[in-house]
Amino acid sequence: MSSHRPSEDQPARAHGFATRAIHAGQPADPTTGATIFPIYQTSTYTQTALGEHRGYEYSRSGNPTRAALETCLASLESARFGLAFASGLAAENTILSVLRPGDHIIADDDLYGGSYRLFERVYCPLGIEISYVPARDTDAYARAMTDHTKYIWVETPTNPLLTLVDLAAVAEVAHAGGAKLVVDNTFASPVIQRPLELGADVVFHSTTKYINGHSDVIGGALMTNDADLYERYRFHQNAAGGVPGAFDSWLVLRGVKTLAVRMRQHQENAMAVAQFLSEHPKVRAVYYPGLPSHPDHALAQRQMSGFGGMVSFDVKGGLTAVKRMVKRLRVFALAESLGGIESLCCHPATMTHASIPAQLREARGVTDSLLRLSVGIEEVNDLIADLRDALE
Ligand SMILES: *Cc1c(COP(=O)(O)O)cnc(C)c1O
Fold first, then answer.
1. CATH fold label, 260-391
2. 287 carries an active-site annotation
């Protein structure tokens, strides 16, 4: 494997988050002084002599633009190591690649549909065992531990019900049984939640969402402080090859520069939308960790420094009412995905969570009348007016 530049040789943690988002891993180009890190759109690197090169041989093994992104994201998650991937699921696949038949995972039962499909359709048939437990029930994780448990795998806030997992408590459960805690931090973003600081061992992202933030790239990344796991993941990244291209890496680097300022606006808008919905007579329930009525509000205040931009709500009148409402939206686009500057509305039952069997889905609260909003950074008055008109 190439001696690709380790993502650890980087800047002083002394700088604040927003500063690191703009500068970490991206010194001015030494040959030209280019202030913005270049796109190294090359597959190969000319070597100076047999066995002599400048740290790069072939872009699956290492690419400078990708390395800059890996260093920057590691810095934002308070990690020593970072690896970038072609998608969030490719990052997940690399994390799972170190498991062997008979190994056991405990996961929360409100996972992103694609993660559930990867577990059930790819890893279960290979002999990996998986137990699902209610996300907020810390004791249930402890009860589910076996001698073979290698990972506790959680998403917090969960998708789409925005339930929280107590990361510090679940990290203790994992470590007491010799397992590692893996956290999908896609919904929160490292601006408001840094799982490694709370005891998690591995954190990953679909960078497609808040990290890139402009709905124009599919990407993923994982970050860890565990040198042994990092080496095994890095081996798999190169050996299985799920790497992002230089241009996509550059787009994500560009996007993440504004993460802190975008997130502030997402949260401000989301809070206003959640308050509006919670007072609306046609809305049965609103799920937003920033509302004092949310069952995990106190935990959110403890382990996050904000409440994020995702709001889910249950509409009265079932599927018929939902269909009518969605058709009337003008600013919110009906679309999967989240975390971009534009506002999106998703119907989990038929869209993101369609791969979960209906009965299981309903039992977990993902009803036919549930809608999930990714609240964008447009004028908040336009967003509220759009929802008000659609609910009429
Ligand atoms: C989108 C998403 C993923 C998967 O990422 P891709 O980039 O689509 O592969 C995983 N987890 C969560 C929470 C997501 O929202």
1. Aspartate Aminotransferase, domain 1 (3.90.1150)
2. no
